[in-house]
Amino acid sequence: MSVFEIVRFAIRGLFTNRLRTFLTVLGITIGVASVIILLAVGNGSSKAIQASLDRLGTNSLQVRSGGGGFGPRARATASSQKPLTILDAAALMDKSQAPDILQVAPIASTNGTCVVGASTTTPSTFYGTWPAYYKASNTSIQSGSYFTNDDVTQGRRVALIGQTTATALFGTASPIGQTMRCSGIEFTVIGLTTVKGASGFQDGDSLVLIPITTMENSITGNQPLSSIIVEATSSKTTDAAQTELTSILDARHGISGRKTADFSVFNQASLLTTASTSSKTFTTLLGMVAAISLLVGGIGITNIMLVTVIERTREIGIRKAIGAPKGAILSQFLIEATILSVLGGALGVVAGFVGSHFTIAGTKPVIVPASVFLAFGVSILIGVFFGGYPASRAASLRPIEALRYE
Amino acid sequence: MAQLVAVVAAAEAVDSVVDKQPVIDVRDAVKRYGVGDASIFALDGVSLTIDAGEYVAIMGPSGSGKSTLMNILGALDNMTSGEYFLDGIEISSMDESHLSIVRGRKIGFIFQSFNLIPRTTAIANVELPMAYQGVKSKERRERALVALDVVGLGDRINHEPTELSGGQQQRVAVARALVTRPALLLADEPTGALDSKSTADLLDLFDQINAAGRTVVVITHELDVAHRAKRIIRMRDGKIVSDDLNKERVA
């Protein structure tokens, strides 16, 4: 009795009931495909989060007015709050107290409408800052030039604009050298920033950047800063930079002991950690759902094999009566179950690869190679494991009882 | 397993030298169902010897123990006590995995309900026992063709059981039983599901098989079937009540 022979018996057994075989295979196919696709979706979404956070720059820290807390208590301290000022920003640039801070960019922000002829637009981001901002916020220009420290000292009326703003005001024409009127003040556009894309709900390209002195002198007056962006010397020193800036600002704002801080620091690196942790949870959940469907597929194999064994009890009896050893019967049913699961697994891998080409729930799935091997391997194990019980039942049937079975 | 195959082969070798040892040698076979007072003796001390080349009918009403005896003789069931030598091999103490090898090599079964594998062609059915014995596929096919030819179904080899009449199915079963060259052809009510024409054909076939030297044991409750045998054993209540040569057939 060769292995080849037993495999032939097994295949014949499967072929005699094609519909049942097909449906059982389908169960495993769906299980394997969903493991691959759902893990790919999880992986894809975590890649997307990573990419959008990378765009923000992981070295940067953002300091904002107000404590970290929310609710009545946070509000109660508001009256005693000291605003962030340009002097705070300047203090952070002290290399002796803050060796891990590379550069500091204060941000003054306003809401204004920009007009060119009949075209108007309200940029979602209208910032006054200085050149350190470019690097700290990962902003670059695709054409024209940056405004310089000299422009800031002189308070020149020059502006960098984003693609969305440029299109709204100038259409397809190059905005460089053109003038626009924002909040009643005329600016010369000197640069167009590189497209950033949307980050969350905000269009990163609906943007106007002007020198901070120009904003304070001409638009907002001497208002507090909305935030300060601090760039650490490297992604490894962001935590140290955060400690340094906190102690400098604590000293300047008289924060000590039980007094609640009147500013808060946002760390992009910790945001990244949080985001990737939550996407890992998400992936795990998806993986569990998929694993359950694979398990259900496996139970389907057991069910079908049990039915097959019962249905073929008499045949098993005949085979035993004419000299089939226990091992031959065991292998025949085990191989039947394994063929079902291997076939299902292989089709599932194909379906998984095909399915991962589509965008699912706004996410481009990225296949995790390990998940393919895992799902396929598990499906084979399921065949052996879940097929083993019915197979051993078939093999241990006593021929006399099996022959009597109607 | 391999050891057993060697034992069987050795016994076959001894066979050809001695040739006098009985095919069936049952000593004081007891088969009891249940325990204590509620137990029933299906076989109550049966001793029986059948020599090579005999044609024996075992008769009896239902409940006489003839089916139990058939299961014991066919190595399909174990005895409660007693000894059984099949073609010189002691099989009363063997477990199921060894018994299956003995069955495959020593016994050809014919059942009342034919018991062909469904959805499988006649030739594949006949080849099956040889497949379990590890006969090479070319030799298997040749031997299966010969066997089907002997039973007169040389032109029906690719028919499945449902495409054959009852008589034809039973002849496929006979071919399947003979193809392994067993020491014993064991038939359990072989004509029970056949019409009179097919019955006559089958009994003629048994005569030929026996004439060729094969040992044939038929379990039946039909008198005309039993009367084709050369020796008739009658059973009642788990015991042998008579064991006579059939004077019509033995001159």
Question: What can you see in these coordinates?
Answer:
Chain A has 406 residues and is an alpha+beta fold. Chain A has two domains: 3-52 and 279-404, no CATH class; 83-253, no CATH class. Chain A is 55% helix and 17% strand. Chain A is built from 14 helices and 14 strands. In chain A, the strands form two sheets. In chain A, strands 1, 2, 3, 4, 5, 6, 7, 8, 9, 12, 13 and 14 form a twelve-stranded mixed beta sheet that branches. In chain A, a hairpin with a 2-residue loop joins strand 3 (114-116) and strand 4. In chain A, helix 12 (326-355) packs antiparallel against helix 13. Chain A is elongated, with a radius of gyration of 34 Å. The two termini of chain A are 28 Å apart. Chain B has 251 residues and is an alpha/beta fold. Chain B has a single domain, classed as P-loop containing nucleotide triphosphate hydrolases (Rossmann fold), CATH 3.40.50. Helix content of chain B is 38%, strand content 25%. Chain B has helices at 2-18, 66-73, 96-106, 122-133, 137-150, 166-178, 196-211, 223-226, and strands at residues 24-33, 40-50, 55-59, 81-86, 89-90, 107-110, 184-188, 215-220, 231-236, 239-245. A six-stranded mixed beta sheet of chain B has the order 6-7-8-3-9-10, with helices on both faces. A four-stranded antiparallel beta sheet of chain B has the order 2-1-4-5. In chain B, strand 4 (81-86) and strand 5 form a beta hairpin. The model of chain B has no long low-confidence stretch (mean pLDDT 87). Chains A and B meet through helix 11, helix 12 and helix 14 of A and helix 3 and helix 4 of B.
Describe, in short, the structure shown.
The complex is a heterodimer of chains A (406) and B (251). By secondary structure, chain A is of the alpha+beta class. Chain A has two domains: 3-52 and 279-404, no CATH class; 83-253, no CATH class.
Descriptors:
heterodimer; A: 406 residues; alpha+beta; 2 domains; twelve-stranded mixed β-sheet; 14 helices; 14 strands; 55% helix; B: 251 residues; alpha/beta; Rossmann fold; four-stranded antiparallel β-sheet; 8 helices; 10 strands; globular
